[in-house]
Specification:
Length: 256
């Protein structure tokens, strides 16, 4: 089932002209439309639930619904901003992959696992079998999600044409080392933002199991990717990059 879902996200079942390649307009339009609808529906429904709650006609489901709507709105906004950031600076690299919706089967499985845990634990909580409230960490998670996404987007746009979703192993002629702005403090703000956004989504949902799993998996991913990318950058820029690395930080725990 996971493979079938990933095939759908990758449009492997489509053979029409506007869907055959990852740069085809049909793929981009359809992905953007689905994300836009998901964002709009959850923002509207979340605001309606909040309004009902504060006007004195609350429901037992209000907290759960607002929690889920906030998560889905943030998730769809994240993927739309990934495409928008690429469009601002690397229009020649734009494709359906720029949304990062079809990142990998592992990414898809992680999302499905978090949704399953949220609704399963919600059901257990309403039946009186959950020893904690799923709302406890929601506000902390929301702050991490919004802050992480903002830092990632700012880092991507500040890097401009030098940013890429893929690690560059060969230096382009126009590639430059960016060391100003947010890059004067964090040398990987996009990774920093994604790490805390990822963990924050599970705190927002109040998922203890997925919070732990997302933290471990995200940390392992960046602990492998960052040293590899920095070895490439040091090969490109030599002592300039070594000096830059010595005065900045990664910002992800235990990755030095």
């Amino acid at each position: 089932m996971l493979e079938l879902l990933q095939d759908k996200l990758d449009y492997r079942h489509c053979h029409l002209r506007h869907f055959k390649s990852n740069k085809a307009l049909g793929r981009v339009a359809q992905t953007a439309a689905v994300l836009g609808v998901v964002l709009g529906v959850h923002v509207c429904f979340g605001l309606m639930t909040l309004y009902r709650h504060v006007t004195g006609t609350p429901s037992d489901w209000d907290g759960t619904l607002m929690q889920w709507c906030a998560y889905m709105a943030c998730l769809s906004a994240f993927h739309l901003l990934e495409y928008f950031a690429t469009a601002l600076n690397q229009d020649d690299a734009l494709s359906d992959n720029s949304f990062v919706v079809n990142h990998s089967p592992a990414y898809t499985a992680a999302a499905l696992a978090s949704w399953a845990e949220f609704w399963l634990e919600t059901g257990l909580g309403r039946a009186g079998y959950l020893p904690f409230s799923k709302m406890t960490t929601a506000l902390v998670g929301l702050v991490m999600v919004l802050g992480g996404n903002a830092i990632r987007f700012h880092g991507m746009t500040s890097c401009g044409k030098n940013f890429s979703h893929l690690v560059m192993t060969e230096r382009r002629e126009d590639h430059k080392l960016v060391t100003t702005g947010i890059y004067s403090v964090l040398r990987h703000p996009a990774y920093f933002g994604w790490f805390y956004w990822s963990v924050g989504t599970q705190l927002l949902l109040g998922n203890p199991l997925c919070t732990l799993a997302y933290t471990v998996v995200s940390w392992r991913f960046f602990n492998s990717r960052i040293p590899f990318e920095e070895s490439c950058l040091e090969r490109f820029y030599g002592e300039d990059y070594a000096a830059y690395r010595s005065r900045t930080m990664v910002g992800i725990p235990l990755i030095h």
